[in-house]
Structure formats: C-alpha cells, structure tokens
Amino acid sequence: MTTWATAFAPASVGNVGVGFDVLGHALGGVGDRATVRRTSSGRVAIRAIRGVVTELPSQAEKNTAGRALLSLLERVPRGTGFDLELEKGVALGSGMGGSAASAVAALVAANATLDAALPDEALYECALDGEAVASGSRHGDNVAPILLGGLVIAPARGAPVRVPVPDELWCALVHPHHVLETRRARAALAGHYELHAFVEQSEHLALVLAGCFTGDFALIRRGLSDVLIEPRRAPLVPGFTAVKAAALAAGALGASISGAGPSVFAWCQGRATAERATRAMQSAFRAAGLDADVHVSPVDAPGARVETCGS
C-alpha cells in the first residue's frame, strides 16, 4: 500500500502567443517536485517549502498546491488528509507556469497515494482551483500541458485536448532576471479591443493548429504572431522588441511572451536553430541590462510523473 509519493511537474509555456488562456505546452528540463504523504487528518498541511522560492504561504487555502489538494479532498473518502513538502524549481513571476507546476506536482503525488486513483480530468479541475489562487482565474493553459505533456488545448469545461506536433518542433525560452507578477500582467489587458484584431488572432491560432496537425512548418510560421495580447504586455518586459527580433533573425518560426512574462519563447524547426535562438535572445536581454537563463526543449515534452513512492 502506497502512503507517500514524490512527483515532478515541468515548467510550461502558457498562451503560446496566439492561444490566450487556452493553449500551452510543457517545457522540459526544469520544474517543481512535491512529496505528499497520505494521512487520516482530513486536512492539508504544508510541512516545508524549499528551492528557488521559499517565501510562499504555508496556509493550504492560500497556496496553489495546497488549494489544489483541498479540492482533491472533496473527491476522495472522508478522513483522508495530505502532508505536503514542496521543492520549487520554477521561479514565480517568470512566465513559466511556476504556480501551476506546484499544483500539478502535488496532485500527481497525492493521487499516487490513493487506493483508487482519480483520472486526469479530475486532477485538471483540482489544478484549476489551485491556479486561481495565483492568478485570480481558473485558466488551464499552464496546468493542462504540465499535467499531460506536449501541446494542449485547455478548455474552460471538459477534458484538455492533446495536439500532435512535428518531432522537429523545438522551443527556445529565455528567462530574464526580472519579476513580472501574473496579476499585473493580466491588468495590462484591460480595455477595448477592435473586432478585426480578434479575427486576425483567430486566423493565426487556426494556422498554428493546422500546421501542428499536418506537420507543416510554413503554416506554423504564418500563424505564430500575437496581435492581441503581446502589444499590451510588451512594455512590461524590458528589451522585448529587441529580444523577439533576435529570435527571428536567428531563424525562429515565431516568438512571443511566455505566459504572463517576462520570459520570451520562440518556436524553431530543429534543436540547432532553437539553441542559436536562445543565445541570440540572451544577448539581447543582456544588452537591455538583464541577465537571463536559457532553456531548450522539444515542444512535445513529457508532463508530470511520479518519481518515487513507498509505504
């Protein structure tokens, strides 16, 4: 009988430029770990928070992972409880799905301790409750790909949908040492939008999805341009215009802000191009006075997984 488990959940690229709040993909190589022990307390207790972020709420209802586990308690036998330890590998305010990674890691670990594991669709709903603590809304563009891996459509209702992508589709992501809180980035989106911008954005999203399903990089290149959200958030990311231009000059199919920012991602055909794009973007951030970390990952990166468990 399993009573404890440790799970890893990767970082993510939310929105993917053209799919605000509904499209995202996993990012390999960096993520959060959660160790959960099942108890008979009937409550969630956060025992430790370590890693790159430690100053997080220890009250379960105010912590994304804790809130996700509270939601899980509503779906399991009465009297079930969870003790949680978090190891943060994804910085908050980075645009890399840090809050969602914590929530998903905790859920996957807790689910492994249950006598009857819940399906991914139920874990997705619980993770949305956790994400709402950080951003103020239940949007799944980060939690869905972190849970399932790869490129995912995250609907407001119903199960997430995996999108097939070409094997040679890679992501170059550069994270500047600059914090941009999700709530501030969402506040920048307030105001009026022209109808033609929605039409153009819908066209671009359709082209990207069609390119992914058919393996047509030319369609992806045509579509990967955010005309709706990026113009309003770009001023919040120091040096963004030059960073994006550097990615395109290095051969990227397209580039935009990852999630709420300030990280910038670029989709590329092949790993070599992705590595070249990361170097170019990192140099552009340095020219803007910011050091930056780089990550290169296939877009079809794996999702959350149980690493160890025991009784």
What's the layout of helices and strands?
Blueprint: E1 4-14, E2 23-39, E3 44-51, H1 64-73, E4 81-88, H2 98-112, H3 120-135, H4 143-148, E5 151-153, E6 161-163, E7 169-176, H5 182-187, H6 195-214, H7 217-223, H8 230-233, H9 240-249, E8 254-257, E9 264-269, H10 271-287, E10 292-298, E11 305-310
Parallel strand pairs: 3-4
Antiparallel strand pairs: 1-2, 1-11, 2-4, 2-5, 5-6, 7-9, 7-10, 8-9
Helix pairs in contact: 1-2, 1-3, 2-3, 6-7, 9-10
Please provide a written account of the structure:
By secondary structure, the protein is α+β, with helices and mostly antiparallel strands. Helix 1 (64-73) packs parallel to helix 2, helix 6 (195-214) packs antiparallel against helix 7 and helix 9 (240-249) packs antiparallel against helix 10. The protein folds into two domains: 4-161, Ribosomal Protein S5, domain 2; 164-298, Alpha-Beta Plaits. The termini are close together. The mean pLDDT is 96. The strands form two sheets. Strands 1, 2, 3, 4, 5, 6 and 11 form a seven-stranded mixed sheet that branches. It has helices spanning 64-73, 98-112, 120-135, 143-148, 182-187, 195-214, 217-223, 230-233, 240-249, 271-287; strands spanning 4-14, 23-39, 44-51, 81-88, 151-153, 161-163, 169-176, 254-257, 264-269, 292-298, 305-310.
